[in-house]
Amino acid sequence: xxxxxxxxxxxxxxxxxxxxxxxxxxxxxxxxxxxxxxxxxxxxxxxxxxxxxxxxxxxxxxxxxxxxxxxxxxxxxxxxxxxxxxxxxxxxxxxxxxxxxxxxxxxxxxxxxxxxxxxxxxxxxxxxxxxxxxxxxxxxxxxxxxxxxxxxxxxxxxxxxxxxxxxxxxxxxxxxxxxxxxxxxxxxxxxxxxxxxxxxxxxxxxxxxxxxxxxxxxxxxxxxxxxxxxxxxxxxxxxxxxxxxxxxxxxxxxxxxxxxxxxxxxxxxxxxxxxxxxxxxxxxxxxxxxxxxxxxxxxxxxxxxxxxxxxxxxxxxxxxxxxxxxxxxxxxxxxxxxxxxxxxxxxxxxxxxxxxxxxxxxxxxxxxxxxxxxxxxxxxxxxxxxxxxxxxxxxxxxxxxxxxxxxxxxxxxxxxxxxxxxxxxxxxxxxxxxxxxxxxxxxxxxxxxxxxxxxxxxxxxxxxxxxxxxxxxxxxxxxxxxxxxxxxxxxxxxxxxxxxxxxxxxxxxxxxxxxxxxxxxxxxxxxxxxxxxxxxxxxxxxxxxxxxxxxxxxxxxxxxxxxxxxxxxxxxxxxxxxxxxxxxxxxxxxxxxxxxxx
Length: 598
Prior knowledge:
Blueprint: H1 2-11, H2 14-40, H3 46-74, H4 76-83, H5 90-100, H6 103-129, H7 134-171, H8 176-182, H9 190-225, H10 232-284, E1 287-288, H11 298-454, H12 459-591, E2 595-596
Parallel strand pairs: 1-2
Helix pairs in contact: 1-4, 2-3, 2-7, 2-10, 3-6, 4-5, 6-7, 7-9, 7-10, 8-11, 9-10, 10-11, 11-12
């Protein structure tokens, strides 16, 4: 949070501060262009001059504001950091640095384009609005050709100086490696810049001076041609004085502008190199300051960035060496004190070893007894495990048998239920037959009565009706017997269903009991296995303990001999520590030559 506040206070208004030299450079260029126009442009009348002036002022204001807006838009991240609307982390600072670093070239391009567009617009407007010649229009265009490069070069240099200072402020919050990752030193254009500045500072001013001299010569010749021959000598002296005076003024102005651009360009290139030389001189004298990146451009940036990285690595290395030297001295003193105490304790250790040997013999005897008892317990645990596993297998088999019995009872119950449903269907059929037989009996009785009424004619019909009646009565008797059988079957199936349901409940209880028995036996088997493993581990441990105690007794004598050797080694260690202390003092003396400043 504090870093964000610091960044906001440090970068507030820096975007406009960085853009300000563009306006200053354009004003200087406009002043030079105005002097040049006053000396070289010959307008036909005052109205044409006024139109030219108004067009120049208006279009210059428009293009200046446009250039200002373009520049501020290019610095969006820097403006957000200054306003506190962007987080002050490494990524945001990196984006802002990538905006600021190429900004001088961008502003120079915008300045050059604005000059070219403004001068072209003024020339075109003057030509369209006033009766000027093509030659005068070309001379107006020449102003842009001569002074647009000079102005853009001056703007580039002025903005570069401020951009370098702003970049150095932002690099404080980043490590040298992060700065190099954000602005890699890959642009190598110093040669091209020197050629461009040579053209801007030599060729263009020379062309302007030649043009001014030529134009002033034309004006002087024109004025002398109108002078009376008697006054020619005096007029010639006056014209020569005015010509030389104006040329001297123009030369001084151009020379001043050239020296200004040359000075700023020299400081842009030589300033970072001078600071690198100063830091290198301090490093040679043993003064190491915290690493700082010196902002520059092109090959100079490659030098300063590499030097900053080297300075950071050397600062870290010397700091580590100083801390290591101090730690080495402290550790050496501690080793000397420890070796002295160790030498004194070695004698006490030898006396204690004799007592330890007797104790070891007693421990070996106890270990043998424990090993014997553990072997017997292991055998009992193994038999218990085998018995539990057998009971577990029987319980599983019993559970499977009960499960099969449960399935058989369920099948019987389902079959009896199907039989009961069939018997119910047969009962309904028998009821239907009884109904039909009753009706047939009634019909046969009616037919027999009708046949009796008919006399001899219906006698045969009466006999048939009587037979049908007896047949219906037999059917009724048979169906009654069938109904009794169905009732008996229904009762038997009901009893069978109840019995099978009871059997199912019993098998469910048996199956649950078998599951409980199986779970109990599983727990018994698990406990038996754990017991067997524990006993086996104990037996193995006691055997190892017995072997170890035997070996310990044998090793006691060796330890006594080693103790004597340790005494001799301790004396050698004391001597080596003395030598190491001398090395630590030497390292302190060497690193003490460097003064590390945070």
